[in-house]
Structures are given as structure tokens and as C-alpha cells.
Specification:
- It is a single chain.
- The chain is 16% helix and 45% strand.
- With 148 residues, the chain is of the alpha+beta class.
- The protein has a single domain, classed as Nucleoside Triphosphate Pyrophosphohydrolase (Alpha-Beta Complex).
Length: 148
């Protein structure tokens, strides 16, 4: 089990991940990793010396092929594992973004097999306890985030 929490800000050095709730032409953008049968929102680890906004742009490009896009910070999120006795593990932090993608590269050059552009949410999530919660929070904080 995991706990997902949200913050307005934390110390920059604590931010280890960037996750983007991405849209293109009014539809959601999800990624399918080559080694998985599930879908996920674009995101990934911050590299040493990288600003968190740079991480977001790099990961969005690497995982979706996005060439022309706008990123908007939503909030800080954290994920904490919780064992069967309710004991919490280490809390890890990331920055949650919304992304509006206007143009994609013709092919992907990463571990991502394909992207899915759809009005519907996937049935099989890679991280079902985390990513739907992040999407809900982005929608709440962004006034529906362009719900149809």
C-alpha cells in the first residue's frame, strides 16, 4: 500500500521525480513501456544537476516524443510506502505538472513502446495506487483540467 500526499512546496533538493498529466487535442496522453502491459502518465527521475522543470521537459520528450508543448506546475506530491502493520517507509517527493502537447516527433527513441492518445483513462495502470490519484489532484487544482 502507498500514501500519496500533496504540498504547495518543499525544499528543491527533495524533488526527485517529475510527472506530467499530458493532453493533446483535448485527449489524454499515456505511455506504454516496452517491458510492461500497462499504461502510465509520462514522468521520470531527476538527473544530477538538473532543475526539476528541465526534468519535466526532458522526460516528456523522451517518453512521448513531444516537440512543442507547454508545462505548468500543479503542486508537489509525495509517495510513501506503508507496510501491513501501517508503518510508513521513506517519503519521496516529485513535482506534478500539466502538459499541453501540440506536436510530436514521428518516432520514439526510449524505453517507451508507444503512446496512447485517448479520451478514456486506461484500465491497466502501471502504478494504480499513485497515478489516478495524481490525475485527480491535477483536475481538482486546475478546475477539471479541460474535462469534456
Amino acid at each position: 500500500m502507498v500514501k500519496v500526499r500533496f504540498y504547495d512546496e518543499v525544499e528543491d533538493s527533495l524533488l526527485k521525480f517529475a510527472v506530467m498529466i499530458a493532453r493533446h487535442d483535448g485527449k489524454w496522453v499515456f505511455c506504454k513501456h516496452r517491458k510492461r502491459e500497462t499504461y502510465e502518465v509520462p514522468g521520470g527521475h531527476r538527473e544530477p544537476g538538473e532543475k526539476i522543470d528541465e526534468t519535466a521537459g526532458r522526460e516528456l520528450y523522451e517518453e512521448t516524443g513531444a516537440l512543442d508543448f507547454d508545462l505548468d506546475r500543479v503542486c508537489v506530491y509525495s509517495v510513501t510506502s506503508v507496510d501491513e502493520e501501517g508503518k510508513e517507509g521513506e517519503e519521496t517527493y516529485g513535482m506534478l505538472y500539466t502538459a499541453e502537447i501540440r506536436k510530436f516527433e514521428k518516432e520514439l527513441h526510449s524505453e517507451i513502446e508507444k503512446i496512447l492518445i485517448t479520451k478514456d483513462l486506461p484500465e491497466k495502470w502501471t502504478y494504480p495506487e499513485i497515478q489516478p490519484v495524481l490525475m485527480r489532484e491535477a483536475k481538482i487544482r486546475r478546475g477539471g483540467y479541460h474535462d469534456e
